[in-house]
Amino acid sequence: MSDSELDAAFFVRWMVAAAAAVEREADRLTELDSAIGDADHGNNMQRGFAAVVKALEADAPTAPGAVLTSAGRQLISTVGGASGPLYGTLLRRSGKTLGDAAQVTRQELRAGLRAGVDAVMQLGGAAPGDKTMLDALVPAVAALETSFEAAAAAAEEGALATVPMRARKGRASYLGERSIGHQDPGATSSALLFATLAEVAA
Amino acid sequence: MTDGGQGAGPVGIVLVSHSGPVAASVAEMAAGLAGGGATAPVAAAGGTPDGGLGTSTELIGAAARKVDRGAGVAILADLGSAVLTVKAMVAEGDELPKGARLVDAPFVEGAVAAVVTASAGADLDAVAAAAGEAYGYRKE
């Protein structure tokens, strides 16, 4: 697929691949979340992305922006934990930024995701280094300038880099020092999102 | 209909907790403490539709519509993900009645202040301010 021809079908494939990856990794996400969270991240994400796929199957939008906006709305409505509004805001704001163009370039997608990440920062009040999904998202979006593969690698690296961090946001922050030594579940699922993006772009 | 419309009925209050029973009990307590006479409409949106712990946009949206009398709706939330969910719903713009907003206040104390103030006929800004003032009440 050429970088200049990302159409709605490409974005639907991305969401379907993300749902499959979340389902495959649900146990691992829950395991990570049981160490420093409330042990529901795997189930929550699975439920959310299943709803995303179902909505896209029922009514697939014809513009990339509309695919992401629809996915974001489903996540906010169905996930139930903090991940719902955060991931929902990420995708919805990205979708709104892409507008109703029938096709977008990788650089346009990067700009859209950048706006989405900014909205997540604003909503959750977190910054990189707080041991959150942002630690995967921020480097991933920056690396998307180079390629989809670079973005996936940066997200994975960002997720691994949360292990020695101390959580400063969300339920994990109550654990203080005891949150150190565990990989952040949100950063891990964000890495999955970029891994599947690279997968469908390959 | 304008936000906090002149002559519109009282401001509605929605209490969003991770727990259904917590939201319902706080709603009951706040209405009880608001005392005699007519009280402002209060609705609880606690837990998930199947009775589990969590936050549900469906329950929050339904509760807000239920208490909307045209003068706005003050929404109070207990913990992080409930707060984020309400903020995301406000940003979404089409799931909540016009004039619904998240109020920055402690959950229990803020709920009592909000219901008492709304029952006295105050507008949304005054209800939000009264609920927020509960942060200033020190306990030692």
From TrEMBL, chain B:
Keywords: Transferase. This is PTS fructose transporter subunit IIA. It holds the Pfam family EIIA-man. InterPro entries: DhaM, PTS_EIIA_man-typ, PTS_EIIA_man-typ_sf. One of its GO terms (cellular component) is membrane. PANTHER family: PEP-DEPENDENT DIHYDROXYACETONE KINASE, PHOSPHORYL DONOR SUBUNIT DHAM. Residues 10-140 form the PTS EIIA type-4 domain. GO terms for biological process: glycerol catabolic process; phosphoenolpyruvate-dependent sugar phosphotransferase system. GO terms for molecular function: phosphoenolpyruvate-glycerone phosphotransferase activity.
